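task queued by scheduler; priority normal; single chain, no ligands, no partner chains; default sampling; output format set to structure tokens
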Amino acid sequence: MPHETKLLALIAVGFATAMLLGFIAARLRLPPLLGYLVAGIAVGPFTPGFVADASLASELAEIGVILLMFGVGLHFSLDTLKQVRKIALPGAVAQIAVATAIGAALAWWWGWNIAAGLVFGLAMSVASTVVLLRALEQRQELDTQDGRIAVGWLVVEDLAMVLALVFLPALAAATQGEALRTGDIVQSLMLTAFKVAMFFAFMLVVGRRVVPWLLGQIANTGSRELFTLAVLAIALGIAYGSAALFDVSFALGAFFGGVVLAESELSHQAAENSLPLQDAFAVLFFVSVGMLFDPSVIIERPLDLLGVMFVILVGKSLAACVIVMAFGYTSRTALTISASLAQIGEFSFILVALGVSLNLLPPEGRDLILAGALLSITLNPFAFSTVAPLSRWIDEHPRVQRLLSLGRKPIDPLPPEVSTAHLHDHAIIVGYGRVGSVVGEALAAQGLEFVAIESNHRLVELLRGQKVTVVFGNATAHGVLDAARIDKARLLVIATPDGLYTRRILELARRRNPSIAVVVRTHSAGEYDYLIRQGVDRVVMGELELALEMTDYALQRLGVSEARSKLVVQWLRTEGMSGTSGGEAHGKKEFHSGDTDVPEGNAGTTQERP
């Protein structure tokens, strides 16, 4: 078969198989990445049927790595990291160290050398950002405190792996056979660090000025295809130039190119235009990784694979849980971070591929990592499903809580000098973030008493300094709602977007105070309908409230009276929005032009804050 035909066959069969298996994975509520890896196994040399050209796949995969790393740099957010740096930075570094040490010890037990153990451990220490973001989005936790910590944690992990990709060639150059010479390692690492520093200096002085300016000049031409070509040329050009001039890896060059371009006002357009090619070559990268996997490792080395799964699912997750709880966070936050890290993905593949190519890692190490990735990504949804029950169990056992937090005494739900015994007919606000704090400020401005429940201990300390009555802890934990005097409260405001968390709070609150009025925040139409069926007094869905506010404005601007407009909005809220999750409204009441009475309470009006 001619070389050109092999290339066409690889792209056609690879894309078609990846699309089919990725679709099946998505329908099973698994990350499509899992389907792409299985597609690679299907067209690889270790399974019957069509066998793609592995050498061509690796060449295309290199482009995939460059564009993948360019995208990571383009979306790199220092702001996200700054928000959670006090926990994410030390926590991620400590977790990487622990996971790498456990993995290296496992490799040493198998008889591998120190270099192989280091690469093996590093590959298991880093989680997949793609899998994490999808899991958080599915659970509507991306914008929560737990979600921000998890994303910041992954940002630190990605940075650590970028540095690892830089120094692995230096480690390989200093390795002779099975022996590692300390002097050669130090010398090689120092030389590499100098080259990287020179590259960074060049990019900071020249790149951050030239690249945005060049992209701006091309954008001024108004040509979309030329702009897309420029973005790809910058990504591939910086990656190749960094390797040719500074002996820096393609991955680091592409990553830093993305970081530099992210400072441009055109970064969002650059990301949008490069995304289709980035996705396409990333799929080929995952397919090529799957082609290298030998499924026989599952049968031939089942105990070794169990060891790998133990490190991924238990070792590094337990380390993360202990670290987060030792910083004073709740068990729920700690377990959410642990579940987020209980898988491995794209950086693990890049590391093991580089490790094998540099003869630092034996091929069976790559097979074990790939098998661990397939299994851990598949099991990750189940890891998240254990967060709520495990959190409740830990909270009900103080000794376990003390052990996991390394003996640190938990923050008291209420400080000794604060008492809620006098409260009666007050409000309880669960979650004092962007939404809950607005409610709290409005209540305080009217002289109304309320108690906040918050699990972010730094926010709790800040609020207590402002003389806000706040109970620290998870609202579903034993005694937290009682500390807020749920039995005497008149109103419960649940300002957290987590649906499962909300359901549990609602169950506990009504068990202690059946007559309490409840207002709940949600982002899901299905959750909206469920809460309405449960008799919640008011459910606020962000997208719905935006639509109603815009409807109110549009009607009034088009000549409809204010009273009439408010009536329409109220009708939409109470009657017209029933059954939204099913795609159509069930039991809608028709709105007639003669219905002019504004419903009692005038719930559609927008009140100004005092």
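post-processing summary
- Residues 540-610 form one domain.
- Confidence is low (pLDDT under 50) at residues 578-610.
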